[in-house]
Each structure stands twice: as C-alpha cells, then as structure tokens.
Amino acid sequence: MKPLLLLLLGCCLLACQPDTERPGTQPAKAELQTGAEQLQQYLPLLQGKRVGVLVNQTSLVGGQHLVDVLLANKVNVVSIFAPEHGFRGDYDAGASVKNSTDSKTGLPLLSLYGASKKPSAEQMQQLDIVIFDIQDVGVRYYTYISSMHYMMAAAAEYNVAMLVLDRPNPNGAYIDGPVLDPAFQSFVGMHPIPLLHGMTVAELAQMIKGERWITNADKLQLHVVPLRGYQRSQPYSLPVKPSPNLPNDQAIALYPSLGFFEATPLSVGRGTEFPFQVIGYDKFGPAGFQFMPVSTPGAALTPPLMDKLLQGEDLRQVQAQGLNLQYLLQWHALFKQHNEVFFTSANFMDKLAGTDQLRLQIEQGQTEQQIRASWQSALQQFKQRRQPYLLYP
C-alpha cells in the first residue's frame, strides 16, 4: 500500500473515533510517531552530554517514561525539572510544586512551579542540553508552554542547548480567540498569540526563538524532533491525561471555552468525576442537572463551591469544537438578571483572555458575532506571522 494511502486511511480511522473516549482506550496508530518515539533522531545528540529534562507523566515512549528510556540508553541525565502539577501530574492546579528526589531513579526533582518558575544559574550550569517533552493541549493559558518559555530563556542565558520533542496538539485545528496584549502578560499568557493558536510545542518553540520573545534568542541552540505522520487537523486522543482535571477528550475540547469560568464564582466540575465538562452554581441555574463538588486530593483539594449541591449544565455529550462563547454569555446574562457579579476576579479574567476587551465586551452586552469580529484583524496577522515556523500541513 502506498504511503499516502496509508496516511489517508490513518486519518480516516482517527476521525471516526468518538470525542468522549478516555485517554488510553485507543490503540496507538503506527502512522503517527511522537518526537520522543524517534530515538534515532536525538540519542546521538545526547552522547557525552550532561542532560536535564523538563517532563511530566505525559512524557512516554510507548509504555515507558522518557527518563527511564534515556537511562537505559546510557544517557547522563543530571536533573528532572517539573512543571505545574508536578513530575507525576498529581498536584492540584495552582499548587506549589516542591523540590525533591525521584524515588525510582534517585535524580533530583527541581520545581519550575514553586518559588521560582525559571531555572537558576546553578541548575543550568550543570547541564549541556535540556529536553522538553510534555503533552500540551494548545490553549494559551495552559501553563506548560510558559514553563517551556522560561526554560528556553534560561538555556539561552547560560549557553545550554535545548531539544524539544514534539507531540500533537489536540486542539490543533483551531485558531481562535483574542490575541494577547503584552500589557496583560502573565504566567497564564506569555506570548502575543491567540487563545487557540493551532501550533504544536515544537512549532511554538521555533516561534518564540524566531520572534525573539526571549532575551538572547539568537544565542539559543534549539533542536526539535518533529512528529511523523501528523496533520494538525486530525483528531488526536491523548494516551495520558495531561493534568488532573483534564481526564478525557471531551474535557480537553471544552477547556478553551470553560477555562474562563475560573474567574467567576461558578464550578466547572473540579472535585467531580467530570471536571471541565459541566457548569453549575448553587443559587440558580438551568434545571434538570445537579452535581456536588467534593474535596479530591491530587486534583482539587478545595474546589469552588465544595460540598454544595449545584444546578447547571451537563456538557459531557455535546459536540465541543474550538472556542464557544455562548456559555460565558448565557451565564453572564443569568447573573445580570439576578443582580449578581459574574466576573468576581476581573483581573484574572483579563489575564486568561490576554486582554480586558473580552470582559468589557461581555459586560457591554455585545453578541458573540460582534466580539468575534473584533478579533479578526489580529488573527489574520498572527496566521501570517506564524507561517515560517510551521512544521505540518
């Protein structure tokens, strides 16, 4: 069978998978290879080098963790850097990750989500090269790409090479949302890119360097291992949940739309078995569906509206694609009817959106069509700006 026909057949099979499958339930498709799985492409680069790795529970090569694979291949791994949610992915969102030692390998675990989000000079001076291999979900406020940014900045500053092993973007088919205004830059939004940017981590790393979004960008020795057999529009079911509150494909698909509710008093299901698949409130809401968030160590120790019976929307079966503003608009209108404040954390909302304009537009009563129209010029400029850095059709 010809390679092109194989690729088309693989894409067809992927497209037929239901959105609500849990990660890990589908067999791996031979047509697609992650960067980490292409050992022959990067092991020679690591020979004789002192290696650091920025990884978590998603950094798998088949059924083995990348760290174990590197050690089995006699790579001199010096240290493991951990992002938000930790090396094993078992820290709550926003919970400080502490330095420790990995019990399996004895290697030092260095937190990039604690007192500091950027590696120290002492940590970097022990390295010749650092590997980034983490599954992202393609949403600007998901913080793994912010940790990648800080690691790239440290690598450039201390003359350490950087290797990005690419993984698919499960929201890669979409470019949508407001482009970040640098005045609202924060750890949940560091780059002038849309909320949904449609890029993989390797493409984004090339753009961060190429657009000089880090100091000393020209000095950074950036290596990437691209995916094989990948097209950004093809559906991709993650083999491992990327963080405790994104447990399945449906949550990942709804995350761009529901993440904004973190700046409101509502619950999006943290502390339940279906986080980022429901919306609810204790005082009022649509009738017919109820749920109760409870303390869930390792995912949501003190979730919003904990131990309260909530009424709202069950989104587990909706067809979720890209960014849907209707959830925000409808709940904002409901809060307005009840004379209650919707954006109880306006500053955080503006950081999530990368601008204050979205919040103001909603408060002014603009329609989704009006709001979307205001994004179009910046989105077109971004599409042109990202073009030199793309690796896939």
Question: What's a concise summary of this model?
Answer:
This protein has helices spanning 3-15, 39-46, 66-72, 121-124, 144-157, 201-210, 249-258, 326-337, 346-353, 357-363, 368-373, 376-386; strands spanning 50-55, 60-61, 64-65, 76-82, 100-101, 108-111, 129-133, 161-165, 176-179, 194-196, 222-225, 278-281, 290-291, 310-314. It is an alpha/beta fold and 393 residues long.
Structure characterization notes:
With 393 residues, this protein is α/β, with parallel strands linked by helices. It is 28% helix and 14% strand. The protein has a seven-stranded mixed beta sheet, sandwiched between helices. The chain has a three-stranded antiparallel beta sheet with strand order 12-14-13, with no helix packed on it. It has a two-stranded antiparallel sheet with strand order 2-3. Strand 2 (60-61) and strand 3 form a beta hairpin.
The end-to-end span amounts to 22 Å
Assign the structural class, choosing from mainly alpha, mainly beta, alpha/beta, alpha+beta, or little secondary structure: alpha/beta
Low-confidence stretches: 1-30
Largest sheet: 7 strands, mixed
Helix content: 25-40%
Please provide the count of β strands: 14
Average the pLDDT over all residues and give the rounded result.
90
Lateral strand order in the biggest sheet? 5-6-4-1-7-8-11
Tally of individual helices: 12
Strand content: 5-15%
**Helix and strand pattern:** HHEEEHEEEHEHEEEHEHEEEHHHHH
Rg from Cα: 21 Å
Give the overall shape, derived from the CA principal axes. globular
